[in-house]
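Weekend entry, working from home. Most of the wet-lab plans are on hold until the incubator is repaired, so I used the time to fold the two sequences that have been sitting in the queue since the last round of cloning. Logging both here for the record. First:
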Amino acid sequence: MITIDKLTKYYGSNRAVNNISFTINDNEILGFLGPNGAGKSTTMNMIAGYLPMTAGTVTIFGSDISKDPVAAKKNIGYLPEIPPVYPEMRVKEYLSFCAGLKRIRSSERKSEIIRVMKLLKIEDVQDKLIKNLSKGYKQRVGFAQALLGNPKFLILDEPTVGLDPNQVIEVRNIIKDLKKEHSVIFSSHILSEVSAVCDRVVIINKGDIKAVDTIENLEKKLGGSLTLHVKIKGDRIKASNVIEFIDGVDEIVSIDAEGNDFFSFAVKLKEDAGDDTKNAIMSELIGHGIQISEIYTEKPDLEAVFVDMINRSSDKHGLLELLEETPPEAEDGADSESDESEEKEGEE
């Protein structure tokens, strides 16, 4: 198990990550979501041991990343948002270099490089200079280096950036397969991708954790009432009167004209309403001679959950923020006087 406990990061007086805690279980894929500037990349850099933390701990299968970084990093495969590739190297040469850095035995190095190239489907470019590759291929080369040595824990920051739709599907399937032997945390702005592969998600905004749960549970919590969309042809007023007096209907939210006597109704249902209400609406409309051309129920999805969590107000961003403690002293001056690259990363 990977444990993140009270993790905090300051860049000078700017708090990028605020006392966050969560776990990543064995053989689990955890999605890490948040808008730009939420603290995702900073958090993932700290988990990987690339960026020093101001406070808190990260434990990788029993090893503290700060106290015993060598032991912890042996279990980590890391793909940052910008792949750490060397443009002047050839693909195979670069992977051999990375395998050496990871201390993979010389006798195993060749077979391991072949394995990851085959997995990411980059055998056909193994002799090409990385600088001559497309963005998608560079991304896959970066992913390949993360998999070298078969680490138990993978940190993937936007792993499908720059890939075409077919490549996205391939990488998505690779991530799902990795779950059999690995724990994975990955960030993505493509919410459908997260829904397709993740067991749980963490939603972060302005350095604060907003939610940690399964997608199904988050959708249920947001759920409450459902919205039924009905498209009819006929008398708008008559249809409206029929719909609003059916048991289970809370209110008609909107009615939109679509030309040629077609109208669309958005109907908010009561929390306990279900298929019986939908069937009753269909039956009553047909019984009153109103033609139904379309009817479907809109359920909350991950996108709705994400928007709700990000926009939800929090005391931590109000008056209480003024009462919080001043940032802790930076260790060895690393955090109080961040260099330009760290400042830039914090802003991102």
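Second, folded right after the first finished:
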Amino acid sequence: MTILERLFALQDKEYAVFQSKLTPGIEPELFIGVRVPEARKLAKALKNDSETDSFIRSLPHTYYDENMLHGLILSEIKEYDSCIQAVDAFLPYVDNWAVCDIMSPKVFRKHKAELIHKIREWSASEATYTCRFGMEMLMTHYLDEEFDPAYLDIPADVHSDEYYVKMMQAWFFATALAKQWDAVIPYIQEQRLDQWVHNKTIQKARESYRITPEQKEYLKGLKIKKP
């Protein structure tokens, strides 16, 4: 059974309809309807499958679910350089937020000194989902023990009209406020972010249970009012 046949064996047509409504820009007929937990199981089962390498190299894929599976397989690659190479080969074909966000290679946790250089490169890309992926990896790996205030300039320096880039910036800074308030709040106080991102960051932070009521009230007063 081919990998595509395995995906169709897991098909849930009602879920395909639901998923297509959450993922604008992708034709409804390109959704097979594989639920994410089932796709994760398949990705783990395919780690040592002889067909997997061929599947990874066969780009572009036709179906949304193939791309989701591809992202999950990349997340299981254990060798850092191979993983980076595979991610770089795949990113140009990522065309939606869900596939972008499903990728979270486990090996990145052990290579943060090298990874930050790739994050700078990805985040500076003009390609929507390459840029989004870079900022998401920064959010995932560098807001705790590896935090450096200088890293905040990586997403702050991104200026884009793309909705999914701006949403990632707001998500990043709202999360950063929850984890590194003292370092991050000047970016809001001094209005260093584009206005839409600034206000969306405040909105998302005020919706977070990790932000105190006092912090939420303070952030409310920092919203930029439209002229």
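Plan for Monday: verify the second prediction. The chain is about 60% helix and 0% strand.
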